[in-house]
Amino acid sequence: MKMKHEIIISIASNENQEANLAKARELLKTIIPELTFTHELWTEPVNTTRKSMYLNQLCKGVTELGPNLLSEVLKETEMRLGRRHNEDGIVVIDLDLLQYDKERFHIKDWERNYVKDLMKEL
110 pLDDT band (50/70/90 cuts)? Predict the structure, then answer.
């Protein structure tokens, strides 16, 4: 029997935000069927010249995938949704693995207010 691992994923977009988060949720559910999502939260952009607001959301679930494979799958999902790097601050979709079992990633993100606020819902 395969091990089930608890995960938390951060979802964000600053371009066609509502539609892109909806598409991301659909695709993520095909990969990780048992996901629960927080509400969406608008935030000001950080570290960018682009002034578009970000729409953020967290989700929690369980997977049998290892952390490296899961991260690869998230990057592939971003590309399927139209993510390209170096697009002048445009972030069509950003999917980051924040936690895998007890191990945390993207440590600076954990200090952002939206992550702290949305974590209360998980």
Answer: very high
Q: What is the Cα–Cα distance from 95 to 58, expressed in whole angstroms?
A: 10
Distance between CA atoms of residues 16 and 106, nearest Å = 24
φ/ψ of residue 67, rounded to 5? -65, -35
What the block records as the tokens of 74 is 């998230």
DSSP 78-97: HHHTT--SSSTT--S-EEEE
Residue pair 109/27 in contact by the 8 Å Cβ criterion = no
Handedness of CA 66, 84, 43, 23 (dihedral sign): negative
29-82 pLDDT, tens digit per residue, is: 999 998 999 999 999 987 766 778 999 999 999 999 999 999 999 999 999 999
Q: How far apart are the first and last CA of the chain?
A: 26
Looking at per-residue pLDDT, the higher value among 15 and 2 belongs to: 15
What single-letter DSSP state applies at residue 15? S
